[in-house]
Design brief:
By secondary structure, the protein is mainly beta. Helices cover 14% and strands 41% of the residues. The protein contains 3 helices and 13 strands; from the N terminus they run E-E-E-E-E-H-E-E-E-E-E-E-E-H-E-H. A hairpin with a 2-residue loop joins strand 9 (138-141) and strand 10 (144-147). It is globular and about 50 Å long. The chain starts with 7 loop residues before the first strand and ends in a 7-residue tail after the last helix.
Amino acid sequence: MFTGIVQDVGRVLSRELRGGDVRLTIGYGQLDFSGTRVGDSLCVQGCCLTAVELEGKTFTADVSRETLALTTLGDLVPGAPVNLEPALRAGDPLGGHLVSGHVDGVARVTAMQGEARSQRLTIEAPAGLARYLAPKGSVAIDGVSLTINSVEGASFGVNIIPHTQSATTLGRLVVGARVNLEVDQLARYIYRLMLPYTASQPDVEKP
């Protein structure tokens, strides 16, 4: 479990193909991984990965075919920057919202506009995820916890403040960029719990 508060921007050092999977080695500078062990979970660009090697200021993780197919991790090449966050520990502050690191789909940036010192992004989510998006709700984009400002269909707007622009990879986004999207867990569970009640309601005729 994570919070969506990115603690470092690392960089892909190597990408190795292994029988259809990919092994990534990632370097970092600011993180304190002194308590991290092989087998622990790390959030990389919004995806929960397992550390299989730790050495100096680097760690290595295997990325499965499933993850390569359903996230943007398959696009990563050596030199690419990535948002990093270690797993949440009991007693840690929950500064963002509960993030599982299980990406729901790949969304796309469709518009960018300066708004005072912030950047206003419009992002189009896969149609099937639109039901989980609500104004003032939470969403994780490339592992960053953000507040949804507006929703129209499957598109939603978020503001990227100057700190987030400089402390994460979101400041490097351009129109057309693909991003990992994780919807709020509470929205997912509420929708599922409400299904039996909405399914039992008769259709309302439109005037």
